[in-house]
Design goal:
By secondary structure, the protein is mostly helical. Helices cover about 75% and strands about 0% of the residues. The chain is built from 21 helices and no strands. The longest helix has about 40 residues, at about 130-165. The relative contact order is 0.15.
Length: about 525
């Protein structure tokens, strides 16, 4: 009997060992790529919730008759799709262009003020829970949008969008944190861009789907917020099970992948205990030319992106006179081009670096100086294409495609400069670039009160000048290498060095006296 029990225990122990072996070594899909895909969906969710209002607002607002005293150069005739549209073209809310600008910028107000607190939260708690709770919060608020607008009109919508913006403060700091912990330098562009390019995918889905949903559901524009908000809640449930902040915290990662990441990712060599954060070298960060060059490139990218993200549906509706369904589908095309190019350029960038064809710095500079100025050329061409709808949309598609080269740098260069402080740098940079999200809808509302071609041309020229300036600055001061202040003990070393120098000075003075 005793021998039988002993044999049974041995068999159970062997079975448990085999289960552990399967769990630790059996999965063929790398956990870092599962995280990359889930991060991509997180980014898509965030930008779907951010961008869906841009299409929905064209149906929420009551249409006003345009003045007939403008020149032919400033107006476009209605398209056949607009004339034949069977959807309700008369909204219920009488919001001026200025008011619409305030509504569309309200997200950016919350997003901007929450960047530094969001980065601090990510530095303390890691990337998993801040990101997950942020997306969940935004999803619930998106679901509440129709009822809030019905009850409190423009005030309720502005407050709600501000709170959704607050929830987005952890988004990019979390992505930078996760990229630093889960992507080796030779995979950084691919994994980082896979995560961040989900934002473009979200814009594509929001623009393309919003018009179709509004056109085909009797409840009209509220269906957009119900559908997208529900999707975000579902994502949160899956995220909590599959993804973790660090490889060493993951219960399902193989030993082989964990060792690979421990060996190749720089943040594991911090010299700090797990959960202990290094001091942040604020003075060196804020006086770093490469950091500010990247920030300027990001400002130009965000400005150009917001011009099209928040206002392209309005341009297609008010200026080119497209119907709501055509509007949504055509608004998605430029972002589809950007998504395809950004992913292709990220793989090309990693290949050039890995094969030693170009230095990391030169790769980053080439993609920035082709992406931004390339977008500028096609954007200004679109502004002079007049009412040639096919040509205008083609130029928008080509321009956003070129800007895909720029975004492939913006999303990972922070990690190039400082893997350890990537989340903090991203939060700091996004505090600056977030101002563009406030400025763009407001500026467009002020500069285009009549929605004419000549008014929009001013907006496009401002964007072109910004792209060219940012490209020049990055070409001069941009960098792709780890900065000296990235070391976890940099602040302590500087402090020790200063104290040693002061002590030496005191000793010299004492000897001299």
């Amino acid at each position: 009997m005793t021998k039988s029990l002993l044999t049974e225990k041995i068999d159970l122990g062997q079975d448990e060992l085999r289960c552990r072996t399967v769990r630790r070594e059996g999965g063929r899909i790398s956990q870092r790529w599962i995280l990359a895909v889930m991060g991509c969906l997180a980014s898509a969710n965030a930008f779907m919730m951010r961008g869906c209002l841009s299409v929905a607002i064209t149906e929420m607002v009551a249409k006003t008759e345009t003045s007939n005293d403008t020149s032919l150069d400033d107006t476009c005739p209605a398209s056949e799709s607009t004339l034949s549209s069977t959807s309700s073209s008369s909204g219920t809310y009488e919001w001026s262009e200025y008011t619409q600008g305030i509504i569309l910028s309200s997200y950016a107000w919350g997003y901007t003020v929450s960047q530094i607190p969001g980065a601090m939260m990510v530095a303390k708690f890691g990337g998993k829970w801040p990101l997950g709770i942020g997306i969940l919060m935004a999803g619930v608020l998106t679901l509440l949008t129709p009822k809030m607008v019905e009850a409190y009109d423009v005030t309720g919508l502005i407050v709600l969008r501000f709170l959704i913006g607050i929830s987005g403060g952890v988004l990019f700091p979390s992505f930078s944190f996760l990229t630093a912990h889960w992507a080796s330098p030779n995979e950084r562009s691919k994994i980082g861009n896979t995560i961040n390019s989900g934002g473009i995918l979200g814009i594509i889905i929001a623009n393309a789907l919003s018009g179709v949903l509004i056109e085909n559901f009797s409840i009209g524009w509220p269906i957009v917020f119900y559908f997208i908000g529900s999707f975000s809640v579902i994502w949160f449930l899956v995220w909590t099970v599959l993804c973790y902040s660090r490889p060493e915290d993951h219960p399902f990662i193989t030993d082989k992948e964990k060792k690979h990441l421990a060996k190749t990712t720089m943040q594991h060599n911090t010299g700090k205990k797990h959960g202990e954060n290094p001091a942040i070298p604020w003075r060196q960060i804020l006086s770093s030319p490469p950091f500010w060059a990247l920030t300027m490139a990001s400002v130009s990218h965000d400005w150009g992106g917001y011009v099209l993200l928040t206002n392209l549906p309005k341009y297609l509706s008010s200026v080119l006179k497209y119907s709501i369904q055509s509007n949504g589908l055509l608004s998605a095309l430029p972002f589809l081009a950007q998504w395809l190019v950004s992913n292709a350029s990220s793989w090309l960038a990693d290949w050039l670096i890995k094969e030693g064809k170009l230095s990391r710095t030169n790769v980053r500079k080439i993609f920035v100086t082709t992406g931004g100025p390339g977008m500028a050329v096609f954007l200004i061409s679109a502004s002079y294409a007049g009412c040639n709808r096919t040509l205008v949309v083609t130029f928008f598609v080509l321009g956003m495609g070129m800007m895909g080269n720029l975004i492939s740098v913006v999303v990972v260069n922070i990690v190039d400069l400082s893997p350890i402080h990537a989340g903090t740098l991203m939060g700091t940079m996004n505090t600056v670039t977030g101002l563009t999200g406030i400025a763009v809808p407001y500026a467009v509302g002020v500069l285009t009160p009549h929605q004419t071609l000549s008014e929009w041309r001013i907006v496009f020229w401002i964007t072109v000048i910004l792209f060219l300036t940012a490209g020049l600055i990055f070409a001069i001061w941009g960098d792709g290498e780890v900065q000296s202040w990235n070391h976890p003990d940099y602040v302590d070393r500087k402090r020790t060095k200063v104290e040693s120098g002061e002590q030496a000075d005191e000793e010299r003075k004492s000897l001299a006296s």
